[in-house]
């Protein structure tokens, strides 16, 4: 049973890569954008970056989806920005990531095993991609705030970094190799 989060800034190709990967492997795909509250979508459409307070309930809901897939032994791909280490901790541990001083009962809230596939690339390339995108609530002007917020994954997090300068098929293949080498 495998859970993969395809992560990165807006315009890095999360949904495109996640869709292709899920289709190739016959896995379920979730797009985190579909789970934003109407308030969050409105804020972003108005060019207002989301803060932690906006994102935490959304991330907890995404964790619950991944937990459900894990419980039913389903492989799944989630396309999600997951920009900060804290956000990735919430995806792995749920709301308990926010309550670090609370003692856990044995067997309660075990961490999900997630592979984070970080789509990384230069701001100029990603900005060009965003400018071509139509009908999305995330305006290109917010890209800089996403890069400012980004905390690239580092050990001991379970991750790979893939360059968005590669072709779609090369990116998917690189993630696939990481999945099956675990």
UniProtKB/TrEMBL annotation:
Catalytic activity as recorded in UniProt: D-gluconate + ATP = 6-phospho-D-gluconate + ADP + H(+)
GO cellular component: cytoplasm
Pathway(s) per entry: Carbohydrate acid metabolism; D-gluconate degradation
Pfam families linked: SKI
Annotated EC: 2.7.1.12
InterPro entries, per the entry: P-loop_NTPase, Shikimate/glucono_kinase, Therm_gnt_kin
Any GO MF annotation of the entry: gluconokinase activity
GO biological processes: carbohydrate metabolic process
Keywords for the protein's UniProt record, in alphabetical order: ATP-binding, Kinase, Nucleotide-binding, Transferase
Transmembrane segments: none
Gene3D superfamilies assigned to the protein according to its UniProt record, in alphabetical order: P-loop containing nucleotide triphosphate hydrolases
Domain of life: Eukaryota
Family listed: Belongs to the gluconokinase GntK/GntV family.
Entry protein name: Gluconokinase
């Amino acid at each position: 049973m495998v859970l993969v989060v395809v992560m990165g800034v807006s315009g890095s190709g999360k949904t495109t890569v996640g869709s292709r990967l899920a289709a190739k492997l016959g896995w379920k795909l979730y797009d985190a954008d579909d789970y934003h509250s109407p308030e969050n979508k409105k804020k972003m459409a108005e060019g207002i970056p989301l803060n932690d307070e906006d994102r935490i309930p959304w991330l907890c809901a995404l964790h619950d989806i991944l937990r459900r897939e894990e419980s039913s032994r389903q492989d799944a791909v989630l396309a999600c920005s997951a920009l900060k280490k804290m956000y990735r901790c919430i995806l792995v541990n749920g709301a308990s990531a926010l309550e670090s001083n609370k003692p856990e009962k044995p067997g309660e809230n075990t961490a999900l095993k997630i592979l984070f596939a970080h789509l990384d690339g230069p701001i100029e390339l990603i900005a060009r991609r965003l400018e071509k995108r139509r009908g999305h609530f995330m305006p290109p002007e917010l890209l800089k705030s996403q890069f400012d917020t980004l905390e690239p994954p580092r050990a001991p997090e379970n991750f790979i970094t893939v360059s968005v300068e590669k072709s779609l098929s090369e990116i998917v293949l690189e993630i696939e190799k990481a999945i099956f080498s675990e």
